[in-house]
Amino acid sequence: MHQDVKEILYSKEELGQRIAELGAEISKDYAGESVVLVGVLKGAIVFFTDLARAIDDNVDVSFDFISCSSYGNSTVSTGVVRILKDLDRPVEGKHVLVVEDIVDTGTTLHYLLGNLKSRGAKSVRLVALLNKPERRKVPVDVDYIGFTVPDYFVVGFGLDYAEQYRQLPYIGILKESVYEEA
Ligand code: IMP
Questions:
Q1: Are 122 and 8 a contacting pair, CB within 8 Å?
Q2: Which end of the chain is more exposed for a tag (fewer CB within 10 A), N or C?
Q3: Both ends of the chain: CA-CA distance in Å?
Q4: Active-site pick, 88, 101, 104, 143
């Protein structure tokens, strides 16, 4: 375990098992359909690649990616979100499944789901590996949830603190001393 991690919340094996279940559920719901998986950069990338491979070949899957940033600082959310990298292709008339690492205050997803709907997508759903409902400020419907987590700052499996720890194969709670020192 990394020295900055206090405790492992979900091991590599638990994540693999849960992602396989999510893949099976999505395969059932989208059987015979086409869907664009929209990965939210960069945090969702590890989850995205595992989830995509857990979806059966009876679903016609394509990939696209988007990157967003919130204005303001972490304590005061303005609710304004900026798109840093947009999708490569239009989603008009398509089923879209947004793949996100974690839904926290909901600011990013609330904006992003509305934005994708306004582009005329046939449907827009959301799959999030982690959900932190205690922190929600803006309502977001999460269609598929990996795990509901308490209000801890977690890292690994794509999730970062100051761009670190994304490569850890598990989800762990970051030691408070790491951000208190910063
Ligand atoms: P929201 O707009 O507040 O829901 O923020 C969502 C984004 O905040 C996620 O995509 C993550 O990048 C980041 N985030 C929120 N909670 C955590 C955490 O516990 N660890 C790492 N990143 C987090």
A1: no
A2: C
A3: 21
A4: 104
